Amino acid sequence: xxxxxxxxxxxxxxxxxxxxxxxxxxxxxxxxxxxxxxxxxxxxxxxxxxxxxxxxxxxxxxxxxxxxxxxxxxxxxxxxxxxxxxxxxxxxxxxxxxxxxxxxxxxxxxxxxxxxxxxxxxxxxxxxxxxxxxxxxxxxxxxxxxxxxxxxxxxxxxxxxxxxxxxxxxxxxxxxxxxxxxxxxxxxxxxxxxxxxxxxxxxxxxxxxxxxxxxxxxxxxxxxxxxxxxxxxxxxxxxxxxxxxxxxxxxxxxxxxxxxxxxxxxxxxxxxxxxxxxxxxxxxxxxxxxxxxxxxxxxxxxxxxxxxxxxxxxxxxxxxxxxxxxxxxxxxxxxxxxxxxxxxxxxxxxxxxxxxxxxxxxxxx
Length: 365
Ligand code: GGG
Prior knowledge:
The chain is α/β, with parallel strands linked by helices. The protein is about 40% helix and about 20% strand. The protein is globular and about 60 Å long.
């Protein structure tokens, strides 16, 4: 008897509300075809309207409400016209990541056939790598404060925090990923000349963790030249591991190099499965295009496929069905990008719903 999975569906703000239904549409098509048991529950909080009504992004018992879930399928957060971005982000997404110990943020970067590449002379296959972002500490802490605010003596401090536990576990995950890929290559993103305490320390942790992976070639690069190489030599990357902030920047730059951030998916993973993992597009709520029905839903749809691949390895899962469903969604995305309807970010005129419908039809066929 195969088990079922409970999925929390949280749209959030802006285009999150438009792309999430398309992701669910595709997952339901996959569920019908492959016999998956997915039960979706919609949660109408973790958005800025909820904040304006209640004074908080989420209800006090949000953790209890989500703890019984097997995964969270999340749209986007942020509506800066009404709520400052740091309040909406720290009140929702960053709480999920920290409280559910989703310490891996896995963000694939890939150039698809049919997608115009802004970089010269690049073809599909040239760009296909994974960014592994540390997701619970580093530069993303709320530790610090402002002294003498509003005066000439104003002073601000914000701390970065790196722990051996936190660095080692994300490095181990990245080494394992690289070791399982044909190229066995890991780039470690740091800034060990300028940030002269924590970054050489991070490089040292990579050396220590890497002793268990003698077949993985390690390339330590400063973040500044690394961003240049993302643009100039993207084919040299296989797996890239980075701290929270550097990983955030690299995983927006990577997809921009492959045509549009509208394709970029992510998984916020708790690999031990003690808590639900969260799957979301890399893009945010995009207030500039929200409400027009023109957002690209493919990042949301691909994030759903990543969720199925993660659930495939859950205890009691009929993994083969979930992996087959993942592969079918990826194949449908590939075909749709070759000859299907396109949203404006890819030079087309199709609506979000038309692209979602086209991919759902391909998945269900
Ligand atoms: N779906 C992704 C999203 O809502 N992103 C908003 C954002 O600003 N995220 C920052 C981060 O991922 O750390």
